[in-house]
Amino acid sequence: MTQCASLSRGRIARFTRLDECGAPVEGECSTVVTTGFVSVTSTPNYQDPEEIQTLDANGRLCIDDQADPALRWVDHSIVLCNVDPDVVNIITADPLVVDDAVAPETVGFRLDSATSGTAKFALELWSGIPGQPCDPAGFPTYGYWLYPFLGQSQWGEWAVTNAGLTLTFTARSFAGSQWDVGPYDVRRDAVTPATLEPLLTAITATQHVHFEISSAPLPTAACGCVELVIP
Fold first, then answer.
1. For position 5, what pLDDT does the model report?
2. Does residue 16 sit within a domain?
3. How many domains does the chain contain in total?
4. Does this model's pTM top 0.90?
């Protein structure tokens, strides 16, 4: 039996800080959940298939062989409509700006050529499923997207005008993720009563994108980063 769904709208996004090897970073400012994004566009990048063609002595095609296409990475364009400095920092590694309060608050960021583009991060997205009934246990379902190992981020153009301001970033995926099953509960298991669980199987070194239909609740959006404790 297979579950199918029509998806529409992006409901919420979660950004998670990774180390250089692609493993989630445990700490007090390692994850941000936000609804402040306009779009995430994903474009797979392939190595062109190698072709072998040989003509016979009469000029006719004698050998015509083509290798399978090879996925190299997935390019992502991320457009944000809410300026959350912690999201910018997780995506780019650009430094944060804090105020002089007794308990300093983050109030901005700086674009720094010494660090910009060096960050590694994971991105999760939840899509809505319009017109779909709840699952048998009464929970609404969503499309869950995971991009477990992203980096090489670059800033896109932005404009301060008589219009809403958006920030655009590009990033690419990497092989060799150490996301494993992840630090979050993103699905319900099949037992009764169901319990919240991480991914059923680990992300492998060659996997760039994960998708599944899930009835786990959406994470709660908030301004700024929060602590990530890895079980």
1. 85
2. yes
3. 1
4. yes
